């Protein structure tokens, strides 16, 4: 039996759907307050939903009864500074609980980390799985939570856990709607004036799900894999989205000093409204940085070919237009 944690989220839901389309009946965990995503509603008969928070060890142990394969997609994500410590604590403790049960029961796990937990390469070099984030100099709460969660999986592997780790780049897909990476599309559609000078990796959500399933079905253990289709400048991505929507592409470069002003302004606005800032310091600075990722390890491991980013962009724009 297969268990998916975080199946109410963007990636988890897509992964659950992909598993069902391959003929599996699955069990999914969710928080009692979470609603079932629209893309999984047609498959209600194939999914056994269990209310189990990863922080609740006993509930998690019950949810894992009779399970042999675990896909861990659950994570607390927030840009709010006030959420930094709770986010780190929740993501790390939740992963540790899951790892402990999987070690004890001999289950195989595919753990979803992020390239936020992968370090930097020298200028002009591609970032590989051998790069590691320096937690002593990192301030981004999400990156720290992902790094320390990954460390729990490595600890489990040292204790005999059969597991692999995936580190996706920016995951895009129509089912995101206007949340998460979908905000990029909605912002361009509304008439974005500025672009940033950075470059980052992008990958389709369906490809991430397919890579995770393919890795689960191998006997590979104790490895991490960057899941990335293409490295693209933000400017190029914004232009493609604008063309798809038939709107004017952003024409003004937002220089790093302008981004500094923007995140400070967003922070003040967030404080006054009580809402999460639309932009935080880490995101603002990252938007002007070039980070290019090497995807050769995953391609070699499972013989995978990624969907072109331009194809994903077209699909997302068509969905959002309707």
From TrEMBL:
<dbReference type="InterPro" id="IPR036291">
    <property type="entry name" value="NAD(P)-bd_dom_sf"/>
</dbReference>
<dbReference type="InterPro" id="IPR001509">
    <property type="entry name" value="Epimerase_deHydtase"/>
</dbReference>
<dbReference type="GO" id="GO:0005737">
    <property type="term" value="C:cytoplasm"/>
</dbReference>
<feature type="domain" description="NAD-dependent epimerase/dehydratase">
    <location>
        <begin position="2"/>
        <end position="226"/>
    </location>
</feature>
<protein>
    <submittedName>
        <fullName>Nucleoside-diphosphate-sugar epimerase</fullName>
    </submittedName>
</protein>
<dbReference type="GO" id="GO:0004029">
    <property type="term" value="F:aldehyde dehydrogenase (NAD+) activity"/>
</dbReference>
<dbReference type="InterPro" id="IPR051783">
    <property type="entry name" value="NAD(P)-dependent_oxidoreduct"/>
</dbReference>
<dbReference type="Pfam" id="PF01370">
    <property type="entry name" value="Epimerase"/>
</dbReference>
């Amino acid at each position: 039996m297969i268990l998916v944690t975080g199946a109410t989220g963007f990636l988890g839901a897509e992964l659950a759907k992909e598993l069902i389309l391959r003929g599996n009946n699955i069990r999914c965990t969710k928080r009692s307050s979470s609603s079932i995503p629209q893309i999984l509603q047609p498959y209600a008969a194939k999914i056994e939903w269990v209310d189990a928070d990863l922080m609740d060890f006993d509930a998690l142990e019950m949810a894992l009864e009779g399970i042999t394969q675990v896909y861990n997609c659950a994570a607390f994500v927030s840009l709010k500074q006030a959420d930094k410590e709770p986010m780190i604590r929740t993501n790390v403790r939740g992963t540790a609980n899951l790892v402990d049960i999987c070690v004890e029961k001999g289950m195989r796990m595919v753990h979803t980390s992020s390239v936020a937990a992968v370090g930097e390469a020298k200028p002009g070099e591609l970032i590989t799985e051998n790069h590691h984030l320096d937690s002593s100099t990192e301030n981004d709460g999400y990156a720290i939570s992902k790094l320390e969660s990954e460390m729990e999986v490595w600890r489990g592997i040292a204790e005999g856990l059969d597991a692999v780790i995936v580190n996706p780049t920016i995951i895009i897909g129509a089912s995101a709607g206007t949340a998460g990476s979908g905000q990029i599309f909605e912002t361009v559609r509304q008439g974005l004036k500025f672009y940033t000078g950075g470059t980052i990796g992008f990958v389709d959500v369906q490809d991430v799900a397919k890579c995770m399933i393919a890795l689960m079905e191998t006997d590979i253990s104790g490895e991490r894999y960057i899941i990335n289709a293409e490295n693209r400048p933000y400017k190029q991505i914004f232009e493609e989205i604008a063309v798809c929507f038939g709107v004017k592409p952003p024409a003004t470069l937002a220089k790093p000093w302008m981004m500094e002003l923007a995140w400070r302004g967003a922070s003040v606005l967030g404080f006054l409204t009580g809402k999460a800032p639309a932009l935080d310091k880490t995101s603002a600075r990252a938007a002007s940085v070039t980070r290019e990722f090497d995807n050769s390890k995953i391609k070699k491991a499972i013989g995978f070919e990624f969907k072109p980013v331009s194809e994903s962009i077209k699909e997302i724009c068509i969905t959002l237009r309707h």
